[in-house]
Amino acid sequence: MEIVTPEEDIPEISFQALVGTNHPQTFRVIGKAGNTAVTVLIDGGSTHNFIDQSTATKLGLHVIRGKTIHITVGNKGIIECIGRCLGLSLSIQGIIVRADFFVLPVAACQAVLGVQWLETLGPIKTDYKKLIMSFKQEGQTNGDNAKDSLSVVT
């Protein structure tokens, strides 16, 4: 049996994130890249972070193109990644996110924060009824109460 190391993990984006299927329990938030507002989907069904190709172009981001990377879609389809944006900074409700993103045409939103980002937070408290989440980031608690929790846009 072969053990797959994290470096060999095949990136996967959820079908909902790729095509825009909306669910009531979807964490869709507004963030900023520089001075530009971006819609961000926080998606535990996606293994990595993704940014929409047209958004990357609009923001003037440097896209690193290298060997072809295939991304698995939640429905088991395969699409080719256009490249990667490294070290992109987003501000989401006062929380700074610095992460690497695969570049794809994403219909559901302009960026997807997947497990690659979520796992950096440690324990996360999520209330799907109120659609809020709280967590610690760099020792700072975000969301001790509903007022300062990360909340979705409606």
UniProtKB/TrEMBL annotation:
InterPro entries: Peptidase_aspartic_dom_sf (IPR021109). CDD domains: retropepsin_like. Pfam families: RVP_2 (PF08284). This is Uncharacterized protein. It comes from Populus alba. The lineage of its organism: Eukaryota, Viridiplantae, Streptophyta, Embryophyta, Tracheophyta.
